[in-house]
Fold this sequence. Notes:
The chain has a single domain (25-155), classed as Leucine-rich Repeat Variant, CATH 1.25.10.10. Helix 3 (45-55) packs across helix 5 (71-83), helix 6 runs antiparallel to helix 7 (103-116) and helix 8 (122-131) packs antiparallel against helix 9 (135-155). Helices cover 74% and strands 0% of the residues. The termini are far apart. By secondary structure, the protein is mainly α. It is built from nine helices and no strands. The mean pLDDT is 87.
Amino acid sequence: xxENKDAVKNTEAAKAQKAPKTxxxxxxxxxxxxxxxxxxxxRTDFEAKLIKAITAGxxxxxxxxxxxxxxxxxxxxxxxxxxxxxxxxxxxxxxVVYDAADPTFRKTAAESLGLMKNTRALFQLIRRxxxxxxxxxxxxxxxxIRAIHNKEAEAE
Length: 156
């Protein structure tokens, strides 16, 4: 009889160990690790390096990438910054929207700001919208403004 009780206890203990933890049971570190794992799914090596650097609070690679001579490196960096909503870069990217001669840079910067949804970008976006001639850039700016506005409306 005592053996049966011990067997039941051992089985229950084994089940408890195998059962996945709920979010409430996970530590903050475990939750961050899961979130990072999801962020890294289906990413290029470069994107993964950027994401790891940003989530670790190390921005050297990001800063270097934004100054790259390779447009694709810059575009990828701006997109990742937007996806991760790195507020530190709102002002510099907003300046790209306003100042960049190349419309592809302006469009990518506007898309990044739309992903960030930070109201600090609104002034530069609206200023550029008033003078923008390129329809693709104008559409990206309008989408970014809409995304920021929708975020603000949700917060109310």
